[in-house]
Specification:
The structure is a single chain. By secondary structure, the protein is α/β, with parallel strands linked by helices. The chain folds into two domains: 278 residues, 3-Layer(aba) Sandwich (Rossmann fold); 207 residues, 3-Layer(aba) Sandwich (Rossmann fold), CATH 3.40.50.2000. It is built from 21 helices and 15 strands. A seven-stranded parallel β-sheet has the order 3-2-1-4-5-8-9, with helices on both faces. Strands 12-11-10-13-14-15 form a six-stranded parallel β-sheet, sandwiched between helices. A two-stranded antiparallel sheet has the order 6-7. Helix 1 links the parallel strand 1 and strand 2. The longest helix is centred in the C-terminal third of the chain and has 21 residues. Bound molecules: uridine-5'-diphosphate.
């Protein structure tokens, strides 16, 4: 919450009168960038004595088995709850249970429109509990949880994955009819986002928002309505990173903003970094760490574009050439479907041969936190998904910003213009989840951005210094007595009284 918020009285309750631990039911949107931070939050809640249940689809439960087993071993009250998906008649393949399993742009609409059908099984699960949960924390993209919470009289917070800077811009854009003005204007017009404490401009291409496509407007309206009727919001950020935007967001929203991040810092050991999101291939984390151990401190650039975006061969080749010609040591994550085509497979093998000892291509899921926390890593080429950006900042690693869609262009503005930790690669237009065959970023731009990020000089040193300062503040925020730690205490105490009634 914002700094001026008074501590809740319940924090001083004595043990003798303490009601039972509150039970939080967390409902992430089924995409890695949404599941991962909510599972981290569930872990933190459980570590702090609350009961936490994460509700998701069977495929995601299977991916999170490592997290659940680790929690069970140390006796944490964290459970995974499985709801059936996809519903019959949705036309989706059986394994299409996470945004990263959507095969093409056309499958996205059926995927999004099938999600509200989780409401029935979700309500049945909650009703079957012996006692009512204290609070439902549901992703902004899961507005179908609002009706269930309301009908059962359970308080509901929404979790919004992006930065408060983005969420504030998005909310002010909605409050002030910015989207309508943008739609009526020309493609090149620059529009100022109103009532944000720093100058922010967007174009038609970079305007803020999730579900902004005309076909998903109805879902966006439902999400905005569920946002306005929630009892508050939980955000993965920290006070010293975004204080002015947190305060303005709380004022504009009119409900508490619980700021409890960076959530990724709850992963303190090799096992939890290795199993985060889904377990990386056997031995991969050790192999990557061993490779990084051979590199000079701060010398390696890490390149990864989150869990959803996919690039076609022409763009992949430009990235590869750019990394090769930059002359810097690199780790580049190429997703399995991207690397599957024979011409890509061969091309990557040839690249690895040419850059042997200096370049490492990871095919498939990478243990991103383990990489970012290694002392050899000095820069990150990122698509500016908020988790990736915040994980980088939390480990003191400056970034090259290459936004693709949704909140990412605004996250770029935050990183570059406000926080001073980013070098833009220079993209001005979004791409859908699956790139079209145009080359958005040629190799020369990759070389320029990577060289600027990893090179010397006052500006580059300044970015590195700022990133390290934010990392130190992030660490302190999550320690006992730190702002995020204390906010989580208040959050738990606030809901201690609201649950536990007979189901
Ligand atoms: N991630 C990972 N390994 C990968 C790709 C992604 O661990 O190979 C994690 C990353 O650390 C982050 C999340 O997946 O926590 C991606 O979230 P983000 O918001 O950055 O991007 P999105 O996937 O939502 O576009």
């Amino acid at each position: 919450m914002a700094p001026a918020e008074p501590a809740v009285a319940a924090a001083t309750t004595t043990t003798a009168t303490l009601p039972p631990p509150p039970h939080f039911v967390l409902v992430p949107f089924v995409a890695q960038g949404h599941i991962i931070p909510l599972v981290d939050l569930a872990r933190l809640l459980a570590e702090r004595g609350a009961r936490a249940s994460v509700v998701t689809t069977p495929l995601n439960v299977a991916r999170l088995r490592g997290v659940a087993e680790q929690a069970a071993r140390v006796g944490l009250p964290l459970e995974l709850v499985e709801l059936p998906f996809p519903p019959p008649g949705s036309g989706l393949p059986d394994d299409c249970q996470n945004a990263d399993m959507v095969a093409d742009n056309y499958q996205f609409l059926p995927f999004f429109f099938a999600l509200p059908e989780l409401a029935g099984p979700f309500e049945a699960y909650v009703r079957a509990l012996a006692t009512r949960p204290s609070c439902i924390i549901a992703d902004w993209c899961n507005p179908w949880t609002a009706g269930v919470a309301k009908s059962l009289g359970i308080p509901r917070l929404f979790f919004h994955g992006p930065s408060c800077f983005f969420s504030l811009c998005d909310l002010q854009a909605a409050n002030h009819g910015l989207h309508e003005r943008i739609a009526a204007g020309g493609d090149e017009d620059q529009h100022a986002v109103p009532e944000v404490p720093v100058p922010v401009t967007v174009t038609k291409a970079t305007a803020p928002g999730f579900l902004n496509h005309p076909a998903t407007e109805v879902l966006r309206d439902e999400a905005m309505e569920a946002m306005r009727t929630a009892d508050g919001v939980v955000v993965n950020t920290f006070l010293d990173l975004e204080a002015q935007f947190i305060a303005c967001y709380e004022a504009a929203l009119g409900t508490p903003v619980w700021v409890v991040g960076p959530l990724s810092l709850c992963n303190r050991d090799v096992e939890s970094t290795a199993s985060r999101g889904k377990t990386a291939a056997a031995g991969r984390q050790q192999a990557i760490t061993a490779w990084l151990d051979e590199q000079a401190p701060g010398s390696v650039v890490f390149v990864s574009f989150g869990s959803i975006t996919r690039k076609l061969p022409r763009q992949l080749f430009e990235i590869g050439h750019g990394l090769e010609y930059s002359g810097r040591p690199f780790i580049w994550v190429v997703k399995e479907p991207e690397a599957a085509a024979p011409e890509v497979r061969e091309w990557l093998e040839a690249l690895e041969a040419r850059t042997a000892g200096r370049g490492l291509v990871v095919r498939g899921w990478a243990p991103q936190l383990a990489v970012l926390s290694h002392r050899a890593v000095g820069g990150f080429v990122t698509h500016c998904g908020w988790n990736s950006l915040l994980e980088s900042i939390a480990h003191g690693v400056p970034v090259v910003t290459w936004p693709h869609f949704a909140d990412q262009f605004l996250n770029e503005q935050l990183a570059v213009s406000v926080l001073g930790v980013g070098v833009p690669v220079g993209v001005t237009a979004p791409v859908m989840i699956f790139d079209d065959d145009t080359v958005a970023v040629p190799r020369e731009d990759v070389v320029r951005a990577v060289s600027t990020l990893m090179g010397g000089g006052a500006e580059a040193d300044g970015r590195r210094r700022k990133a390290k300062e934010y990392a130190e503040k992030a660490r302190r925020a999550m320690e006992k007595g730190g702002s995020s730690y204390e906010n989580l205490t208040q959050l738990i105490e606030s809901f201690r009284q609201s649950g536990g009634k007979e189901g």
